[in-house]
Amino acid sequence: MNVWNLRCIASPSMICLDLCNLESQVHLLETAGMEVLHVDILDGHFSPSMPIGLDTVRQLRKKTSVPFDVHLMATDQDFFIDELIDMGVQQIIFHPETAAHPDHFLNRIKAAGIRAGLALKPGTPVSSLEYLIDKCDAVLLMQINPGYAGFKSEGKVPYAERKIMDLHELIERRKTETLVEIDGRVSIQDIEKYGGKEVNVFVCGTSSLNLNDLPGSMKNLLNITAPRQAR
Fold first, then answer.
1. Is 11 helix (H, G, I), strand (E, B) or coil?
2. Domain 9-225 superfamily per CATH
3. What are the CA-CA distances from residue 216 to residues 29, 116, 221 (Å)?
4. Confidence of residue 154 (pLDDT cuts 50, 70, 90)
5. Buried b (16+ CB within 10 A) or exposed e, 83-121
6. pLDDT band, very low/low/confident/very high, at 118 (cuts 50, 70, 90)
7. Residue ranges covered by each domain of the chain
């Protein structure tokens, strides 16, 4: 089965796991049925946070068969994209806000046989995708500013729903197969509201994943997404 054909995916975020026991935590999620692992790569410049590095992801890639959906948040992206291609991840999503030639990066990633997509910071309009959406396997909408997930005062932006609808409308109008992802304070209610319709991939962190019972909460998420899989 090609997991990307599923219309509703709950994808746990690696940086929300216990990073001192990352391998065992990922295996718990894998055993529970996890379909995709969301991997954030930050350079400490684009965002003030830098929780995991490329070497950690490279080692973990060898220890699990779960597809890696990488969200790259970097100011200078060339090196990171080459490294991620080399380690064999399944999808690379990067930010056009810091890419001089995002069309080129999309071509480069897809030429390597890897799914490619774009991520938008909260304040970046969907209209910026007008000439790029046809090449995007996925578009990720950030619902909080990158690197500030740990700040409780950093809530989901009030225009999150409007932006989801704008992206859904663009995809419908252009008739592409682009998947929509949302990231940042993603709740069970979000999955129930948008799952399999306006949104296909939900990046799940502490707002929807119980870190004290990873297998149980993963199975609960799968039970919610399962009825929403049909096209």
1. strand
2. Aldolase class I (3.20.20.70)
3. 9, 31, 9
4. confident
5. ebbebebbbbbbbbbbbeebeebbebbeeeebbbbbbbb
6. very high
7. 9-225
